[in-house]
Amino acid sequence: ALIMKPQVVFVLGGPGAGKGTQCAKIVENYSYTHLSAGDLLRAERNREGSEFGQLIDSYIKEGNIVPVEITIKLLRKAMEETMQIDEKKFRFLIDGFPRNEDNFKGWTSVMDGKADVKFVLFFDCSNEVCIDRCLERGKSSGRSDGNRESLRKRIQTFLQSTRPIVSLYEKQGKVHTVDASRSVDEVFADVKAILDKEG
Ligand code: UP5
Ligand code: MG
Fold first, then answer.
1. Which Gene Ontology cellular component annotation is one that this UniProt entry carries (predicted)?
2. Residue nearest to ligand 1 atom 16, measured at CA
3. What is the pTM assigned to this prediction?
């Protein structure tokens, strides 16, 4: 059978901007598979016998970005497994990646020609909104980076490292920006309009 080239939408935004929440809603309404880079890294950290467990753990706690080789390995494996089970599932939302220049260059060098990046969905909201949402969730999520100190570092990393990657894609005309400070449903209405137009 002809194996389709993966079609990728990168989903970016600050910590707590609502990337995971909106991706879950997209999956209910469109034929996309949601891959959260953060979720894949947390699962690898928790996997017994993982050679990267400790390294991932320390990067996440500090709000730093894990070396791209590890993240791409997990993303590729997840894409390949999905397409092996169902070859029609070749459309992916890659949530929380690429977050810095190392990620961007790593993706380009490894995946160029192997996957198409259709566009970037950027969930834009203030640092205050991001912090409030993360602290609120942190009460129950048990995430090791939900405390104020980790959160401060995550915001800093977002501004210093991830925001420039969004700008880089903006220069290529590939970014759809959504005001993520509104309610889940209001944000999703904008997301729908973008996906209906982009296909
Ligand atoms: N919520 C959501 N939308 C709302 C709305 N419109 N109104 C009100 N509340 C809303 O939402 C966060 C919280 O806000 C939830 O309680 C939700 O109900 C509420 P969520 O959808 O989870 O937001 P999301 O943007 O997904 O937030 P998340 O915390 O997952 O973002 P991060 O980008 O910080 O986390 P991620 O898991 O992507 O990465 C974690 C760490 O992993 C990074 O800091 C980094 O160390 C590492 N990482 C890498 O190194 N490389 C990668 O490629 C990816 C991650
Ligand atoms: Mg998330």
1. cytoplasm
2. 137
3. 0.97
pLDDT tens digits for 177-190?
999 999 999 999 99
**Nearest protein CA to atom 37 of ligand 1, as residue:** 38
Distance CA 156, CA 64 (A): 10
Domains of the chain are: 7-193 (3.40.50.300)
Query: Residue 119 to residues 58, 101, 140, 182: CA-CA distances in angstroms?
Result: 31, 18, 33, 22
Nearest CA to ligand 1 atom 1: 18
Ligand 1 pocket residue status of 16, Cβ below 6 Å = yes
Residue of 97, 133, 151, 154 with the most ligand 1 atoms within 8 Å of its CB, for mutation? 133
Alpha helices in 30-98 (DSSP H): 37-46, 53-61, 68-85
